[in-house]
Amino acid sequence: MSAEEYGGAEHPGAAGPVEAASHGGTSPFEGSRTRTLMARVAAHARRTPDALAVLDGDTALTYGQLALSAARLAGELRKRGVAEGTAVGLLLPHAARTVVAQLAVWWAGGHSVPLDPGYPRPRLSAMLSGASVALTVGDKGALEAAGIPGAEAFALPAGWEPASADAGPAVYEGPEHADDTLAYVMYTSGSTGRPKAVGLTRRGIAQLVTEPDYVTVTPRDRVLCHSPLAFDASAFETWVALANGAAVAVSTGGRGSLDGLARDAERLGATVGFLTTALFHQLADRRSPLFGLLRTVVVGGEPLSARHARTVLRAHPWLELVNGYGPTEATTFATAHRVTDADCDGPVPLGRPIAGAVAEVRGEDGTPLPPGGTGELWLGGPRLAVGYLGQPELTAERFPGAGEGRRYRTGDLVSAGPDGVLRFHGRADDQVKVRGYRIEPGEIEHALRRHPRIADAAVVVRRPAPDDARLTAFVVPGDGAPPPHAAELRDRLSAELPPHLVPNSWQPVDELPLTATGKVDRARLAARPPTASEESGEEQSAPEQGAPEALSPLQRVVADAWSRVLGAGVAAPDADFLALGGHSLLALAVVEDLREDLGVELSLNAFFAAPTVADQAVLVERALADEDAGATGESR
Q1: What is the distance between the alpha carbons of residues 286 and 350, in angstroms, rounded to a whole number?
Q2: What whole-number distance in Å separates Cα of residue 141 and Cα of residue 501?
Q3: What stretch(es) of the chain map to CATH 1.10.1200.10?
């Protein structure tokens, strides 16, 4: 994100960092960029109590209602022991009340630990334990499914209703200025097999979102909130709206399909949105109507394709397209660049530091490099995380220094031009980004090595197409043992790890290739051509996948949709989408193709509940029959 006018100072040369310049302009809030977000919401509630704050399609809250609802819920949380420093888990779906709960946790003095109901129970248990969560707020069913004891759970009533602003204004009693008190604990993948709990501060969130000069947000805007709660982009989506008097437009049905996201954005009247880079690319390829609805789109997570950016900008020349970069440890975004058509002549820049961030390009010895030199990006400034909870040695390693000189070593290789604009050149380690998620292959490899019939494992990213990243696991069977089948490995890892950490394909190998220095040669593994039998992890030949004549007409339509998206022919009724390298983003594309080809609406949950061509053909047939029955009923 960030263009020339976005606050980056001129690069001072080899001796110093690139820093974000001070913000200009006036504000109705004195010292606004250091004011707590709770105080800002309360101030908005006093000044404009009837202004829209949150909507989700079923519920709409004004700032007066939001503040009063959060204050009342904070009182309930205090009765259950929440105080300053208490970690509170949030196991809630996308809804207006989830925003109320986040604000209430802070208002009560605690900090939030966002949890994903789709994670397996062992993963949720590890997250709760690692963050020392004392109480988890959620829906009754989700709390029970996660196995959270009753004494540690607070189920929001099924008939929960927002407080009426008619009951009087909410009086905020708490610190007026943001400090280094924790706001969130966000989890990222860990190379040792243990996920890392990143502690983000109230100061860091407030400075990121308050009157940002790297993106346009006004009180008239509605910011689309569709990212999973456990993904740090969701914090940006929520608080960049509420910090600036805008409304949070919570998408409750847009994550099931690409077109559904556009429909939800239109239904909610969204004007500003964040998209992971992979999702942006998919939407750009399909000429999504979403870009005609939004005024501003922030993109982040992986390198932005210049081709896709140019396609969108030329179709929608009014669009403010912002390329955002930043690890969770730097509070979502550290740099930004407003993308123009001219930027698309080459790799799209990362931009300049924003919102108080400091960026330094350093060599292997840790010394700053002059403009043009490629080295590791070290980030600093007041928005850095406090570190990794419960992992002091790792914190010291990744966050060297103290005070204003404290830095975070990103592991990203960049260069800075004479104008201070940063450009990305890859990674200094094995960490990868897939569909916006940061993934440490070591965490997956650690889980695979615990299998009794696996001696060793390595995980790499393959790209069958420029915009399609897939995790591939290479497994070395134990002495004399046959390699486990792909389905067994997938089920095993799915019971331990979040979906984005489960590989898309599996290949048994006799041994892992090594570099001259004795490390696993991941480049050679990634370059190895896949075969049908290796992709499935089973000893079978391509003909067993079936022949075209083995498919019914409806199965052929499904298989053709799969083939287009997967980039490989699918010709068997029992072909499995996941076994062929499919993942959630590709599934969204198939759902869109089936909607366009047949006029049927399938949810993502239904798609993955019917993982074979034959199963999905049955699903499509039922959907068509339901539509015919509905049409017949209407005609009568």
Answers
A1: 25
A2: 25
A3: 550-635
More confident residue, 13 or 411: 411
Looking at the domain covering 550-635, what would its CATH class be? Answer: mainly alpha
**pTM exceeds 0.70 for this model:** yes
In 3D, which of 371, 332, 335, 376 has the Cα closest to residue 356? 335
Q: What share of the chain is helix, strand, coil (3-state, %, to 5)?
A: 35, 20, 40
How do beta strands 422-427 and 407-416 pair? antiparallel
Start-end of CATH 3.30.300.30 domains in the chain: 440-540
The CA distance from 603 to 399, in Å, is 42
Distance CA 209, CA 385 (A): 16
**Main-chain phi, psi angles of 622, to 5 degrees:** -65, -40
CB burial of residue 269 (10 Å; 0-12, 13-18, 19+) = middle
Per-residue exposure over 238-262, b if at least 16 CB sit within 10 Å of its own CB, e if not: bbbbbbbbbbbbbbbbbbbbbbbbb
Q: Which of 58-62, 390-394, 470-474, 548-552 has the lowest mean pLDDT?
A: 548-552
Contact 187, 208 (CB under 8 A): no
The per-residue pLDDT for 191 is 59
CB count, 10 Å around CB of 439?
23
Tally of CA atoms within 13 A in the half-sphere of 383 that contains its CB: 29
**Pair 544, 509: CB distance under 8 Å:** no
> Which class is domain 440-540?
alpha beta
